């Protein structure tokens, strides 16, 4: 956490004269199976959860970021990503659960670094870029096994992201972009009935969005 705080301090200390890009995106997000371990206050559990993304259902999948470009190619920024996962009906039935989901967000806050190759094809309008970031997961944890229900936001552990995309300039101010985004989070949540729930979640997303440059 101290390292993350230092990264954010350096980020906000960047000179005001740097180029700034504000970006908003939505898209389609999925998540592979992951193992869920823990204790509900009375007994241990350990099972493989099948996750569903359901990106188009409310609350929708989305994210936004701000990037300060120190040079034409190198930028630093902060990002909030609202992904989500639901345990499948089969997973719930097989493990005696009524609810297991992170659906008001596996909210991921990261400090990012980006590298881009500006003014490439299409008469200099296309810019490929890559990025990576580290941060924290702040999911809305929903767990119900028929006893005490857990329902609320928690800081559950570290997170990281990898990004690769392509931006298309509409003019000097606005641009459209598409990208692949992978996010990893290590989550350890407290259960209201006592005990804990632990799971590592990876989300894979195809994002489309719009950027404003100034």
TrEMBL record:
Keywords: Signal. Pfam families: OMP_b-brl. Residues 1-18 form the signal peptide. Residues 5-214 form the Outer membrane protein beta-barrel domain. InterPro entries: Beta-barrel_OMP, OMP/PagP_B-barrel. SUPFAM superfamilies: OMPA-like. This is Porin family protein. It comes from Harenicola maris. The lineage of its organism: Bacteria, Pseudomonadati, Pseudomonadota, Alphaproteobacteria, Rhodobacterales.
């Amino acid at each position: 956490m101290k390292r993350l705080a230092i990264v954010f301090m350096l980020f906000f200390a960047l000179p005001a004269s740097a180029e700034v890009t504000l970006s908003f995106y939505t898209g389609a997000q999925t998540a592979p199976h992951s193992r869920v371990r823990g204790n509900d206050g009375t007994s241990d559990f350990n099972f493989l959860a099948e996750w569903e993304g359901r990106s188009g259902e409310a609350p929708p999948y989305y994210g936004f970021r701000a990037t300060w470009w120190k040079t034409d190619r190198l930028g630093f920024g902060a990002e909030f990503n609202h992904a989500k996962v639901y345990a499948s009906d089969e997973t719930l039935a097989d493990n005696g659960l009524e609810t297991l989901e992170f659906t008001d967000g596996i909210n991921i806050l990261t400090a990012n670094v980006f590298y881009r190759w500006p003014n490439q094809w299409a008469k200099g309008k296309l810019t490929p870029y890559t990025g990576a970031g580290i941060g924290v997961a702040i999911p809305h944890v929903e767990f119900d096994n028929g006893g005490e229900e857990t329902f609320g936001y928690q800081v559950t552990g570290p997170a990281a992201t990898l990004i690769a995309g392509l931006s298309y300039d509409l003019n000097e101010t606005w641009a459209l972009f598409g990208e692949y985004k992978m996010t990893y989070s290590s989550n350890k949540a407290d259960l209201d009935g006592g005990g804990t729930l632990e799971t590592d979640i990876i989300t894979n997303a195809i994002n489309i969005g719009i950027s404003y440059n100034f």
